[in-house]
Description:
This protein is α+β, with helices and mostly antiparallel strands.
Amino acid sequence: MAIYEYLCPACGPFDVRLPIGTAPLSRGCSTCERGARRVFSPPNISRTHPALSAALDRDEQSREAPTVVSGMPGRRRPQPPHPALARLPRP
Length: 91
Ligand SMILES: [Zn+2]
């Protein structure tokens, strides 16, 4: 089975799972039954969230050119509690 993407002029894009090689160039929309044409897009790229895409790019880049750490990370100062926490009831 493969996932094929279609574009309905009224409802927008939708996916259909079909056996490989059996997807027609157009089919009825799954919502409104109007004719929807098949859309070709690169796999795993068209619907990837930009933040996930950036993380995948960093992951890919780290394979060839990993970020080199030159020292120990600095010690974090303890943060004061948020003022709203002081208004919470105490046990
Ligand atoms: Zn539709």
